[in-house]
Design brief:
The protein is α/β, with parallel strands linked by helices and about 280 residues long. Helices cover about 45% and strands about 15% of the residues. The chain has helices at about 15-30, 40-60, 70-85, 115-120, 130-155, 180-200, 220, 225-235, 245-255; strands spanning about 10, 30-35, 60-65, 90-95, 160-165, 205-210, 265-270.
Length: about 280
Amino acid sequence: MSLQKNPWALILGGSSGMGWASVQKLARDGFNLVVLYRERKQQARETELHLQELKQQYNRTIISFNKDALSNEVVQAVAGKLKNEGIRLSLLLHSIAKGNLKLMVPVKKSDTRFAEKISAIFEDEKYFLEEQDFQLTIQAMALSYYNWVKVLHDSNCLAQEAMMLALTSEGSSRAWRNYAAVSAAKASLEAISRSIALEFAPYGIRSNILQPGVTDTRALRFIKGHELIRARSEERNPFGRLTTPDDVANVVYLMSRKEALWINGAVIPVDGGESVA
């Protein structure tokens, strides 16, 4: 039986932050949803409760999986489920934040104005980046995006004029301490998206990358010195505030509209001008 009444979106990393904000926004604005997330039992129960509330409030169909979106077996299983149900996705959002946040070498004091603060933040650092840290991070944040797009396409699970979206950061082109592995992954993600935009276009598929400004999410709080990052971002943002998950979700929704179909292969800042200030 086909469930293709409302448009469908698949959100990877849909239990918190920008992924969860996008789940809420899309449910409000007419989408049925497939939501993948990875949480412990208590958090998973809370996520399922919230998803059930969205189903009832907006009369949507929501299929959820508490599974590892980086597992190829999970990718194949989800694609198989969609194919069996006759679901074809109009939108994919890759919102997976998993990687290694380590320095390359110990911090030495310098003459920068943040020298003392930076030295204090990293004074107890014991583990430093190795090749496998780059491999794990690039696999999670970049290669997995391609894998999902490819499997969904090969399984005939993408609607005509489908929009593929993933999330990068300003760190893809700037050097931040303890961000090297993520920076490499985000740069790889952007390159992969450009190639998807080129090679999948004849099949009606678009690929774009959203670049949110610094956003107060669980992922941000894993970064050492996130308080300093927040303060600096608020200082340089023309609007004097951080980007919110809802700011990003609003643009995810905009990119789902037919009016956005001629946007392909782009990296789109969603930061209130923070990246140009």
